[in-house]
Write a structure and sequence with these properties.
By secondary structure, the protein is mainly α. It is built from twelve helices and two strands; from the N terminus they run H-H-H-H-H-H-H-H-H-H-H-E-E-H. It has one domain: Lysozyme. The radius of gyration is 18 Å and the shape is globular.
Length: about 300
């Protein structure tokens, strides 16, 4: 293990979230498959579907819990993609729209903003100058997980994924160890006082952030393989054209809790709509991880759009 990770040896795994409860279950209908296709902007619709499922349980009027006020909701974070005020403001400015928070209860408008954010993150990664992020590869689970981490925790070169990956590459950390789980540890170690990265309250220090990335990645991969029920191993989830080493990454402790013996996600039916997955028993060790939060939005998330 590189000396760079000294002091974090016991945490080099993808720790599940700590909020108990069942994974969200929602009735799915044809609207969402068609919407994701219309607004995709080059983003795989499987990613849009997995993201919306885990952000909101496909509830277009969803709001996340307010961590500062028990029993209350953050009503300015809204809809399928849990769009925040900062994200919506930047979307409107760059695309000449005037959408409001109320508009984000419209599934198509909300999905348009979410797809735009994913596209914006990908474009920023392409300009990042990093070997890890600069080449888009939807068959690479590690690269996709960094896209999801950018959506949930910030992507920017000043206070997000790009900054941390640059730091890791500058320290000559081997490419196979530049993963979201390790990026989180590096971020907290490098910036212990940062309100974004710190180990005492920043959103990167919350294990639920990585648990969110893990289950979204799992369901994205499962949707690509057409898995709609039962369980899936890392090998079964691996894309056909995944880069060398991808299977080993999915099999390491950082990913294993997310891909072993889990319910399959919602998936397109032969007719083009969505079908509800068969509910199966989940290993007790994974129950907490799957119940990390029905809505994984948080008030401090997705503020870095510069």
């Amino acid at each position: 293990m590189p000396a760079y990770f000294a002091g974090f040896e016991g945490a080099l795994s993808w720790v599940p979230g700590t909020v108990a409860g069942a994974a969200p279950k929602a009735k799915l209908d044809d609207r969402y498959n068609a919407i994701f296709t219309r607004v995709a902007q080059g983003i795989p619709i499987q990613l849009l579907a997995s993201n919306a499922w885990h952000e909101s349980a496909f509830d277009p009027k969803a709001h996340p819990p307010d961590p500062a006020h028990k029993g209350q909701l953050l009503t300015n974070i809204t809809g399928l993609g849990q769009i925040t005020p900062g994200c919506l403001k930047t979307f409107n400015q760059l695309n000449h729209y005037s959408y409001t928070n109320a508009d984000m209860e419209d599934p198509e408008k909300n999905s348009m903003v979410a797809a735009w954010l994913f596209r914006f993150i990908v474009d920023q990664y392409k300009k990042s100058g990093t070997a890890t992020l600069a080449t888009p590869n939807w068959d690479d689970p590690n690269w996709v997980s960094f896209v999801l981490l950018g959506y949930g925790g910030g992507y920017s070169p000043t206070a997000g994924v790009i900054r941390i990956v640059k730091e890791m590459e500058a320290k000559q950390i081997p490419a196979g160890q530049i993963t979201p789980a390790n990026a989180r540890l590096v971020a907290m170690k490098l910036f212990p006082k940062s309100h974004i990265y710190n180990n005492g309250g920043g959103q990167w220090s919350d294990p639920a952030l990585l648990a969110s990335v893990a289950v979204k990645l799992r369901d994205y991969l499962a949707l690509r393989k057409g898995l709609t029920s039962g369980t899936a191993t890392a090998a079964e989830l691996l894309p056909a054209h995944a880069p060398p080493g991808a299977l080993q990454q999915l099999q390491q402790p950082a990913f294993a809790p997310a891909v072993a013996a889990v319910p399959a996600p919602p998936a397109p039916s032969p007719g083009g709509g969505w079908v509800k997955p068969t509910v199966i028993a989940v290993a007790a060790a994974l129950a907490v991880g799957l119940g990390f939060r029905a809505f994984d939005g948080a008030g401090a998330r997705r503020k870095e759009y510069a």
